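can u do me a favor
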């Protein structure tokens, strides 16, 4: 058909509806009226249809919109074009941009000014390049991992808002140059049931693909049921370590009852059964406490985007990652943005950390302290919600913040991060003057009766404020410990053991006579100490594993008793002898095989040598070397233990005295000559991470990528983007 026939309607680029003058809709396909071709329009896209009309039928109105820009023609060499394209793709991965960002009209104008004639790659091209980049970087990763001796991995799960599940594997190792490295080994879409069998199969496949199955010495996971036995299914004697951060999270939440809900006993009319229900305050938080006047709130997506952007921008500043909150006291932002309904705080955190948090307290136990703490936390959360749902209260609070020079913003906590509850306590103490002023002037602010009744029900008395102060005091060591552990720049196993021991000593110090109401603080410490022993000390195998690994970090070594050090050294010698024996057996088997081949080749032509004849004549024969482990090796290892004890104790004293910061990798690099055997063993033990913080960082980045602009990002493309995130650090002048 001639497209210039008079009965055809000329397309108008001002409206997309003119496209259908040339096409007929057929479900997820379209039929061209000109040539009767059947074209796909999956997900409702029309780009393929426009491309068909432009390329096949020369309808210029359906060409690329960028042609409307006055792009100056200019010739580029192939190398220069490839370099620019690579920089564009790297920028998209590093900055978390959508694939079509670089072809937005405003960006194109910038390119046209800087590089006239240059057109960035199309989003489909970027998608194909991502897949190729992922394959290339994986090969480079395999090559890099082939040079290491041992590897520690972490494994964790995350589900996005679309309920797609992802498994993240991160690797940790120390190079021959004594550099501690943490990298994402795999970020894969897991569309199977989260059973331990399926998880184990995926992990083993990923490790096999990377050729590191036999090098994997440990795996760090949370304590979920599906992850509890993963270590037993991996190669050899791979040790499983439970994430210390997750355990501390359970210690705080369950010890203090931060999420305990008050229960009532109701008797049904027909039976004597007792049914537990939540108090009315829990339900009332979901009621409408907005003002009588019309109030137009900001879209929730704005809050999510802002929160995710903060998380992405600091995705490798791990102390903020574990808190997942804005900790910058000096930042003054849009109050409508900062104080927007904070229920969205945990929207992007869908993991196992909230599974074992206790909510229902057994009322028959008579434990009133946890119940009081739970009620107090509910009051604080209700206050934050009420303020954020009322424009009158928000404006009133904003004025008081300026008056009292307060820059922190109110934000709810979430069940999967205990740090957020501590931050809620800290902020409530900062807002004490404001909260008290709200209660004293609630009749003059302009609130409706429902809001005033709610305020009256959640008013904090003097005892409540005292409890908040003591909670802040007792939780500060946990908060500082979390920040101390939250790093990807150094091994954390030794410093984790140090932190736990110091927290235990703090909780066992019950003679806090300089603190008012010390009896309340005594109860708090006892509750936390019981949970600390439950999740750490009572887990004999896990606790001993931590000691074995912490021994090689001077900061951990200094916390071990003399008996514990001797026990660890015996375990190390036994393990070292076992490894040495295996190596000798492998070497002997290889030598015997080679000897058999040599004898087979020479059996027909070789003659008995004069030496052999002589030995036979005196009744002696040549024998194979003994399988006994050389005594010199044992002596050398024991001598190195003696040297290490002196050096480690000296390093520990310098650290706790404040003379230097802990740097275990630098310590072993400095003493690798006098501790030749121990240094090799140490790199294996220290590669074990104590926390799965790198996985949390990857999940934070993934939640940012799935913001509104990328809501249709496929799981495969998301996996490729996260995998490449920590690997594309190309300098501008690096040749491609």
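np, heres the sequence
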């Amino acid at each position: 058909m001639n497209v210039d026939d008079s009965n055809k309607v000329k397309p108008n680029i001002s409206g997309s509806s003119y496209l259908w003058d040339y096409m007929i809709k057929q479900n997820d396909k379209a039929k061209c009226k000109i040539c009767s071709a059947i074209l796909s329009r999956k997900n409702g896209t029309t780009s393929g249809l426009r491309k068909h009309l432009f390329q096949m039928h020369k309808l210029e109105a359906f060409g690329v919109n960028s042609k409307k820009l006055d792009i100056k023609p200019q010739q580029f060499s192939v190398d220069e074009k490839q370099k620019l394209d690579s920089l564009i793709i790297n920028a998209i991965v590093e900055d978390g941009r959508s694939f079509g960002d670089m072809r937005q009209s405003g960006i194109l104008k910038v390119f046209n000014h800087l590089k006239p004639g240059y057109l960035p790659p199309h989003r489909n091209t970027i998608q194909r390049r991502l897949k190729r980049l992922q394959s290339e970087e994986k090969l480079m990763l395999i090559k890099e991992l082939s040079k290491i001796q041992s590897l520690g991995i972490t494994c964790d799960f995350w589900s996005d808002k679309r309920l797609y599940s992802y498994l993240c594997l991160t690797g940790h190792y120390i190079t021959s140059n004594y550099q501690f490295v943490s990298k994402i080994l795999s970020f894969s879409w897991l569309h199977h049931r989260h059973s331990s069998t399926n998880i184990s199969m995926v992990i083993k496949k990923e490790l096999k693909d990377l050729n590191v199955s036999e090098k994997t010495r440990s795996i760090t996971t949370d304590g979920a049921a599906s992850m509890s036995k993963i270590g037993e299914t991996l190669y050899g004697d791979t040790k499983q370590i439970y994430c210390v951060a997750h355990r501390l999270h359970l210690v705080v939440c369950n010890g203090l009852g931060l999420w305990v809900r008050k229960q009532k006993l109701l008797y049904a009319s027909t039976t004597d059964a007792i049914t537990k229900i939540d108090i009315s305050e829990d339900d009332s938080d979901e009621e409408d406490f907005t003002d009588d006047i019309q109030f137009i709130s900001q879209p929730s997506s704005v809050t999510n985007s802002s929160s995710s952007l903060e998380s992405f921008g600091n995705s490798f500043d791990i102390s903020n990652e574990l808190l997942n909150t804005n900790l910058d006291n000096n930042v003054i932002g849009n109050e409508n943005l900062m104080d927007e309904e904070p229920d969205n705080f945990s929207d992007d955190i869908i993991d196992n950390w909230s599974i074992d948090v206790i909510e229902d307290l057994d009322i028959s136990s008579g434990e009133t302290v946890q119940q009081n703490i739970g009620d107090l936390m509910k009051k604080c959360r209700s206050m934050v919600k009420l303020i954020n749902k009322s424009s009158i209260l928000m404006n009133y609070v904003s004025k008081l913040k300026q008056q009292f020079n307060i820059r922190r913003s109110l934000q709810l906590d979430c069940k999967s991060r205990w740090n957020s509850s501590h931050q809620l306590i800290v902020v409530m103490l900062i807002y004490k003057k404001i909260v008290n002023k709200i209660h004293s002037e609630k009749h003059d602010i302009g609130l409706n009766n429902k809001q005033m009744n709610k305020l009256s029900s959640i008013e904090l008395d003097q005892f409540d404020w005292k409890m908040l102060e003591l909670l802040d005091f007792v939780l500060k060591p946990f908060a500082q410990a979390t920040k101390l552990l939250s790093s990807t720049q150094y091994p954390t196993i030794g410093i984790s053991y140090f932190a736990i021991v110091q927290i235990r000593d703090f909780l066992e110090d019950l003679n806090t006579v300089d603190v008012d109401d010390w009896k309340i603080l005594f109860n708090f410490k006892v509750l936390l100490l019981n949970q600390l022993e439950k999740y750490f000390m009572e887990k004999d195998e896990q606790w001993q594993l931590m000691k074995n690994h912490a021994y090689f970090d001077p900061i951990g070594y200094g916390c071990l008793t003399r008996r514990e050090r001797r026990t660890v050294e015996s375990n190390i010698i036994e393990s070292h002898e076992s490894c040495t024996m295996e190596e000798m057996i492998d070497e002997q088997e290889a030598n015997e095989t080679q000897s058999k081949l040599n004898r087979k080749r020479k059996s027909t032509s070789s003659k008995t040598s004069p030496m052999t004849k002589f030995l036979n004549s005196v009744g002696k024969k040549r024998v194979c070397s003994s399988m006994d482990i050389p005594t010199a090796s044992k002596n050398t290892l024991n001598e190195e233990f003696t040297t290490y004890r002196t050096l480690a104790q000296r390093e520990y004293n310098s650290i706790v005295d404040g003379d230097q910061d802990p740097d275990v990798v630098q310590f072993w690099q400095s003493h690798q000559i006098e501790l030749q055997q121990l240094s090799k063993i140490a790199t294996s033990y220290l590669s074990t991470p104590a926390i799965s913080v790198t996985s949390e960082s990857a999940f934070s980045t993934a939640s940012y990528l799935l913001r509104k602009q990328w809501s249709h990002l496929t799981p495969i493309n998301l996996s490729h983007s996260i995998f490449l995130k920590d690997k594309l650090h190309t300098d501008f002048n690096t040749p491609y």
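The domain at 130-243+691-732 is CATH 3.30.420 (Nucleotidyltransferase; domain 5). hope that helps!!
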